[in-house]
UniProtKB/TrEMBL annotation:
It catalyses: peroxynitrite = nitrate. Transmembrane segments: none annotated. Signal peptide: none annotated. It comes from Oxyrrhis marina. Pfam families: THAP4_heme-bd. This is THAP4-like heme-binding domain-containing protein. Residues 5-115 form the THAP4-like heme-binding domain.
Amino acid sequence: KQETNAGLHSETGFLRFFPDPGLVPHGGRLELTATHPFGLCEIDEGTYDADSFDVWTRYQGLIRTTTAKSPLVTEIRRKMELKVLLDGRVEMTYVVDMATDRSDTQTHYRSVLQKIPSARE
């Protein structure tokens, strides 16, 4: 919320990495499980490599409680990318796209994080 600077989104989950022997140590398959406080449990699958991942809900990977209210989430896709900028700083971009029973897939949130060098760097 802008007035209080409080976050509007939270979730808890786990990432499980399954390296591909042909791509080790640089990539493979990825599973993500997450729960949301509005009554949604999510299972995503996708791929990762050395500097990115892309996971999305597959095989009916969304389950909700009986008290979940509309709009109901019908699809989620998460993408993360790491980049080294020209000045040497590292930047991570994280995007979550979401569809509901009322809307097509659209960006739900996007964050860009930059590593701040320590005094030793």
